[in-house]
Design goal:
Elements lengths: L5 H21 L2 H19 L4 H21 L4 H29 L15 H16 L8 H9 L12 H9 L7 H38 L6 H32 L17 H7 L2 H12 L9 H19 L3 H23 L10 H20 L3 H11 L12 H16 L3 H4 L6 H6 L14 H16 L13
Helix pairs in contact: 1-2, 2-6, 3-4, 3-5, 3-6, 4-5, 8-9, 8-15, 8-16, 8-19, 9-14, 9-15, 9-16, 11-12, 12-13, 13-14, 14-15
Length: 483
């Protein structure tokens, strides 16, 4: 069930909101959570009911491990839990990738397992690991298995994040004393949801054909020229931003409709003046997970500069592999690891004000160009396809106006205008997003427009939602659903 589908917008969501608030008012907080839990499991099973037992098995095993840790201590249960989650993820996501590489490097001809990739396994496996680490660090308690199931399956974030840590939401689920401000919850939540839906339906979906045509041509053996290659690559950079940022906005909005706060996941990443800043603004919850559960345990920056750079590079290589079982994702992660390393080296040894003041625009442009080049590996289906596009982007295939249209240029200008001139959702809603959420995302709101309750904002949100729904007849999956 897609957030941008009619069955979700007109059946599932209204039904869940009505049942949840009626139960909160006339039954009990526990009854409302039961309804929310059941709805979340139905939402997940809607895609393929065969995946539901795996999700419940993951919850049950991790809850048993968490209970054992709380009673007898972390060792060896924390290690067992982490190994279990990584093994589950590894089997379903990387088994065939590993077999394929073994077959390519040896005379063996091992048969592929052809196991399907369960929906959201990358996200809920990482959430389970963060749950166990939170227990080990005494940030939270295991709680009831009922609340643990809701933590993992909560429908706004189950499919594509944000990656929620247990301590960020467990207390919200357990708070049976809070009073519902229905008008604020629905007003704020539906407005944020409308913005996210508009990003997906009105922008990402309209930019997608220009990206897909370039990558499809390259996979067929075509050699795009300089302009065509950059048009298609920038189109994909904008598509993935509006697609994934839109999903994250919708997740925040849906949770807020129910009175809950999820962590912020995006904050204008293409305004970044360095790759370091980019990862503080792009997929913020994944950045925090990789930092807390991989980079720091590897030693972080505590063992000298060389070790720091090696840890950064290794973290991003594994972060790339998390996105997909293909070497193109590893190269994408490696490029970002290299970019982070160069940025940290420059910050330590380079001129301190090289890109300060007006020259910051140059830094923003270079960072965007770097991330756009890296996106080619992220999107390409093969090495050869990526190579043809990169050859075009670096001018080795001529000027290349084939396939470039006025419509494509117009959409790219519009997309870049939005990401570079308008504040992202967290800044606009900073006055109604709780302070801890803003702090966790390292967001310091700048002077600019803020959302406030008014007749005008209500009309604008309703109009945006109406326009988005009118254009939602072509429902397509979000890019991160495949991870």
């Amino acid at each position: 069930m897609l957030f941008n589908s009619f069955e979700f917008l007109f059946l599932f969501l209204p039904g869940v909101l009505a049942a949840y608030y009626l139960a909160r008012r006339y039954l009990s907080h526990l009854a409302a959570l039961f309804i929310l839990n059941l709805a979340s499991l139905v939402f997940y099973a809607w895609w393929d009911v065969r995946n539901l037992p795996l999700l419940l098995f993951s919850v049950a095993m991790n809850h048993i491990v968490a209970r054992a840790m709380a009673r007898w201590g972390n060792q060896p249960f924390l290690a067992i839990g982490i190994i279990f989650n990584l093994a589950l993820l590894g089997f379903f996501k990387y088994a065939d990738f590993l077999i394929g590489n073994v077959n390519a490097l040896t005379p063996l001809e091992l048969p592929l397992l052809n196991v399907g990739l369960p929906l959201a396994i990358s996200f809920f496996s990482f959430q389970q690991i963060s749950f166990l680490v939170d227990i080990a660090r005494k940030k939270t308690a295991p709680g009831h298995i009922f609340s643990h199931t809701l933590f993992v399956s909560f429908f706004p974030h189950i499919v594509a994040g944000p990656l929620v840590q247990h301590h960020q939401i467990a207390a919200q689920f357990a708070d049976d004393k809070r009073k519902d401000d229905l008008s604020a919850n629905l007003g704020i939540g539906l407005t944020i949801f409308s913005i996210g839906l508009a990003k997906k339906v009105l922008i990402a979906e309209n930019i997608e054909p220009f990206a897909s045509s370039l990558f499809a041509m390259a996979e067929r053996g075509g050699e795009p020229g300089l302009i065509a290659a950059w048009i298609g690559a920038v189109a994909y950079a904008l598509q993935i931003f509006f697609d994934f940022s839109g999903y994250s906005d919708m997740a925040l909005g849906l949770a807020r409709c129910l009175g809950y706060r999820l962590p912020v996941n995006f904050n204008g990443p293409y305004k970044s003046a360095s790759v370091v800043e980019f990862w503080r603004r792009w997929h913020i919850t994944l950045s925090h997970f990789l930092r807390d559960h991989l980079y720091i345990p590897l030693g972080g920056n505590r063992k000298g500069e060389v070790r720091r750079y090696a840890n950064l590079f290794a973290t991003m290589l594994l972060g790339g592999l998390w996105h997909g079982a293909a070497w193109t994702f590893v190269i994408w992660g490696g490029l970002h690891g290299l970019g982070l390393t160069v940025n940290h080296f420059w910050a330590k040894w380079g001129p301190k004000k090289w890109f300060a003041g007006r020259r910051k625009v140059i830094a923003i442009g270079l960072t965007f160009a770097f991330t756009t080049i890296a996106w080619v590996f992220f999107r390409a289906e093969s090495w050869s396809g990526a190579g043809r596009i990169l050859a075009g982007m670096f001018g080795f295939s001529g000027l290349g106006l084939e396939g470039v249209t006025v419509e494509a240029i117009a959409w790219i200008v519009l997309g870049l205008g939005i990401v570079w001139s308008l504040p992202d959702t967290p800044e606009v809603f900073s006055d109604v997003i709780d302070e801890q959420t803003m702090k966790d995302a390292e967001i310091r709101p700048k002077p600019g427009p803020r959302w406030k309750f008014s007749r005008g904002t209500a009309i604008a949100a309703a109009a945006l939602l109406f326009l988005s729904v009118l254009n939602a007849w072509k429902t397509s999956e979000f890019i991160y659903y495949t991870f």
